[in-house]
UniProtKB/TrEMBL annotation:
Record key words, sorted: Signal, Transport
UniProt family annotation: Belongs to the bacterial solute-binding protein 1 family.
Protein name: Extracellular solute-binding protein
Pfam families referenced in this protein's UniProt entry, alphabetically: SBP_bac_1
Source organism of the structure: Nocardioides imazamoxiresistens
Native organism taxonomy: Bacteria, Bacillati, Actinomycetota, Actinomycetes, Propionibacteriales
N-terminal signal peptide: 1-27
InterPro entries in alphabetical order: Bact_solute-bd_prot1, SBP
Domain of life according to the entry: Bacteria
Length: 437
């Protein structure tokens, strides 16, 4: 991984200073200046640490505090702090699906006026811009965007005869699964009982023209839509993979990192794998990862597979938004800092260093990013983020996601005729207070 970039982030005309007090939770640093605590997820720690240092000023310091690895655990820790009116939670890196819940609970400061204009303007891609808004107000700043594409070995696709369909973006999940099964390959997904499994199911449902829920601003009275033709089409994909020889042996506990090794195994044809943007840097040869130039040349990518033939896929949309805690003792500083850590320069550093793609369109044209990635891949990332499908935007997202995960797991038990109906009933019961997760 490339080292942190320095001296980039000064959007508000304040002078850069030093020092990251990474372990303190106190309101003031040793110099007597206030310390803003920024809770981050583990992605891009070195670059985020550099951002915290560069965005510290003569008036305040920014200290990094590390959240757990999983999105659900991140939400739990932050929710507990904010529910207790914690004044030391100044900045937080949020999975976009948690913005509505936190905003609805009055746990986030609203970005207003110039601050709102600075973090959401015409340069921000539509997907990320939508994630920071709740009830027509802006409650966070998009920092980086994420999406999934289909990663695969070109040699496997050629042997299976689906290279053209993949490059045209018309390949279906059924075709990909069959291609792997018939050519000694596998298909890698995220199907453990955790948030990324919900990401897969949601993308499958949306790719068939449906939604898991709609009218989400109605709260617990949201319309539950998963018991539909789209829900059954999604279940057919999960069931097909679970019953296929292309399923990897750890399917029911598979996560983002578990299928990476199946791309270039010792023997075997490799895999087709849906995964996030970080994958490219994972396989790019360096002094420590052991991948060869020949292997890297065989790595290919294509748009997320279609759920049903003739219907455009809806790639997952994720990333990180920066929220400001409602109980911070330094709201003006925290809002200023949130703008500083989300500038185009900051987004460029996260993309180049860590494979965390920009939420701003203009950053994709920066020469440093073009030099770091294949241009066709950057185009695919940007188009997938712009055209992709968000997860349900609801103040009760945690309950919706948990309901889906529990009724669709394990994948081997998914039944297209029963699972969507069972899932719909359980979502309604959980939202209505008749059942617990």
């Amino acid at each position: 991984m490339r080292g942190p970039r320095r001296g980039l982030w000064r959007p508000l005309g304040v002078a850069a200073t030093i020092v990251l007090a990474a372990s303190t939770l106190s309101a003031c640093s040793e110099s007597g200046k206030p310390t803003l605590n920024w809770y981050i997820n583990p992605d891009g720690q070195d670059t985020l640490t550099s951002l915290a240092e560069q965005c510290s000023t003569d008036e305040y310091d920014i200290a990094i505090q590390l959240l757990p690895t999983g999105a659900t655990d991140q939400r739990t820790q932050l929710a507990r702090r904010l529910a207790a009116n914690d004044s030391t939670t100044d900045l937080m890196s949020l999975d976009p699906v948690f913005v509505p819940e936190f905003a609805n609970a009055d746990w986030l400061l609203e970005f207003e006026g110039d601050a709102a204009d600075a973090v959401v303007d015409d340069d921000v891609l539509a997907g990320p811009a939508d994630t920071v808004q709740w009830e027509d107000k802006i409650y966070a700043a998009p920092q980086w965007a994420n999406t999934q594409v289909l990663w695969y070995r070109e040699s496997l696709a050629e042997a299976a005869g689906i290279s053209d369909a993949l490059q045209e973006g018309t390949a279906t999940w059924s075709q990909v699964i069959d291609a792997a099964a018939q050519n000694d390959g596998t298909v890698g997904v995220q199907a453990d009982r955790y948030e990324a499994y919900m990401v897969w199911i949601n993308a499958l449902v949306q790719g068939a023209g449906g939604d898991i829920v709609s009218d989400t601003e109605a709260g617990v009275d949201a319309q539950v839509d998963i018991d539909s033709d789209a829900g059954r089409a999604a279940a057919e994909v999960v069931a097909q993979l679970a019953g296929s020889p292309a399923a990897q042996s750890d399917l029911s506990v598979s996560r983002e990192g578990t299928s990476l090794g199946a791309m270039f195994p010792d023997g075997g044809a490799g895999e087709f794998m849906t995964n996030w943007t970080f994958v490219y840097k994972n396989y790019e040869p360096n002094d420590t990862n052991g991948f060869t130039d020949e292997q890297f040349a065989d790595l290919a990518w294509a748009r997320y597979p279609r759920t049903v033939e003739g219907e455009e896929s809806k790639p997952p949309v994720g990333g990180i938004d920066i929220g400001v805690g409602a109980y911070t003792e330094h709201p003006e500083y925290a809002l200023e800092a949130a703008q500083c850590v989300t500038t185009p320069e900051a987004q460029l550093a996260l993309a180049v260093n860590d494979g965390l793609m920009p939420a701003r369109s203009s950053v994709y044209e920066e020469q440093e990013l073009v030099d770091a990635y294949d241009p066709t891949l950057l185009t695919l990332f940007r188009e997938s983020i712009e055209d992709g499908g968000p997860r349900p935007k609801s103040a009760f997202y945690n309950q919706i996601s948990g309901s889906v995960q529990s009724t669709w797991h394990p994948p081997a038990d998914v039944d297209p005729e029963r699972t969507p109906e069972r899932s719909a009933n359980f979502i309604r019961d959980v939202l209505g207070g008749k059942a617990l997760l």
